[in-house]
Specification:
The chain is an alpha/beta fold. It has 18 helices and twelve strands.
């Protein structure tokens, strides 16, 4: 079986079908959680039609610098302000979550704009949105309204706190949910050490995790519809998803009543499993069982540690962590990182460097796995991107094009999907119901 993501982009794009070929997704999301879900579906072959506000678009288009290098900056009222009319520059943040999509710019606060989106929903298999609770009901674009006309529609709503409950109406961002969902309570250095205190994760993990849950939920709903013919409503909350993400620690609390604590780079149940300082840097070491512990001691040439009864078992090493780790550190600091990485590898001990993202994309395994891809942008130039990590053997992930310009596909989608005449489309543009490139 060949690796389906090996080879050139041209070869990959020769495939004319993806796993979700023929599935149409109407994307009414912005920021990250929703767009991450719809990008996953687009990568898998779905046609994703992204609805964006005229002139402004998805909020993250303006979350720069940095900006996409080939995104043009058309003349407008204020060329340095990405939210003004005529400015088509968009950020790398936006580009990271919106490849393979079509951008249709529609004003859904306008009655005619609402009719357009309603009509597009009738041609879609899936609708995904992340408006505040109740907002789309005011426009007749909620699940109850649309499912009456199309019972097979799968409708996924993504919000901070969910559609019900005392917090349902509250807004929120990823940072808030990392705190409220418990993640920050177990992330960061211990309070009694320098730099101690709760920390958020460096990426918007609540958004990413929610997007992944949403994509799997949509796939499950599509499978059910294939056998029953009926659609359904999916209610996803960032707070729920980040709470579920911490299941192994949360489960421990529910069973024992103990409240998990922060351990910094250490592990509550494995020792040594942390970052150790070498003479010229740092190395991650993970000795996950007693056999690895013995080999770890051999790598360090510390027979005294290997035979010390205080450290004989995993439980012993947890109990005597405060005595053990300084001894390990005393040896580790004597040699450079390269020495320890090679020696630990030779002894079968899981280990690794702490790479910045420059080093990540120079990593031989990352390069072998083709985790950087080049995609054509709107002008046919090649721009880099981070690959989808899924490696299908048959339905190859395709990188059809980079993130679209705002309203780039408005004319195409209204013409092809709704059969609208050019004059009717131009009339909507003249009345600022839609915007086009």
């Amino acid at each position: 079986m060949s690796n389906s993501n090996d080879g050139s982009l041209a070869e990959m794009n020769q495939a004319d079908t993806g796993a979700l070929s023929g599935v149409v997704v109407l994307d009414l999301t912005r920021i990250l959680a929703g767009p991450w879900c719809t990008q996953m579906l687009a990568d898998f072959g779905a046609e994703v039609i992204k609805i964006e506000r005229p002139e402004v678009g998805d909020d993250t288009r303006s979350w720069g610098p940095p900006w996409m290098p080939n995104a043009d900056l058309a003349p407008g009222p204020d060329a340095d302000n990405p939210s003004t009319a005529g400015n088509q520059r968009h950020s790398t943040y936006f580009a990271a979550a919106n490849r393979n999509k079509k951008s249709v710019s529609v004003d859904i606060s306008n009655a005619d704009g609402q009719k357009l989106v309603h009509a597009l929903a009738m041609h879609a298999d899936v609708l995904i949105e992340n408006f505040k609770v109740g907002d789309l009901a005011r426009h007749g674009l909620d699940y109850a309204s649309l499912s009456r006309a199309k019972p097979g529609l799968i409708y996924c709503s993504i919000t901070g706190y969910g559609q019900t409950g005392p917090y349902a109406a509250r807004p929120g961002y990823d940072f808030i949910f990392q705190g409220e969902g418990g993640l920050m309570s177990v992330t960061g250095e211990r309070d009694n050490l320098p730099g101690g205190g709760p920390q958020k994760v460096g990426v918007a993990i609540a958004d990413i995790v929610t997007g992944m849950y949403a994509s799997s939920a949509v796939l499950a709903a599509l499978h059910r519809r294939a056998t029953t013919g009926t659609g359904q409503y999916i209610d996803l909350a960032l707070l729920d998803c980040i709470t579920a993400f911490g299941a192994n620690l949360a489960f421990n609390h529910l069973v024992s009543g103990d409240v998990p604590q922060r351990y910094g780079n250490a592990h509550p149940a494995l020792v040594p499993y942390e970052v150790l300082k070498s003479s010229d840097g740092h190395v991650i070491v993970a000795a996950g069982n007693d056999a690895q512990w013995q080999r770890f001691c051999q790598a360090l040439q510390r027979d005294d540690l290997a035979t010390d009864p205080r450290y004989a078992t995993g439980s012993d090493r947890i109990i005597h962590r405060q005595a053990l780790i300084p001894e390990v550190e005393r040896t580790f600091i004597t040699r450079e990182s390269a020495y320890w990485l090679a020696r630990l590898t030779d002894h079968g001990i899981p280990n690794g460097r702490i790479n910045d993202y420059k080093a990540v994309f120079e990593h031989p395994q990352i390069q072998h796995r083709n985790m950087q891809v080049n995609m054509p942008d709107n002008d046919g130039k090649q721009v880099p991107g981070v690959a989808n990590p899924v490696k299908f053997s048959e339905s190859v992930v395709q990188y059809r094009h980079a993130a679209p310009k705002l309203g780039q596909h408005t004319r195409e989608v209204l013409s092809e999907r709704l059969g609208m005449e050019a004059s009717a489309i131009q009339s909507l543009a003249d009345r600022r119901v839609i915007a086009m490139r």
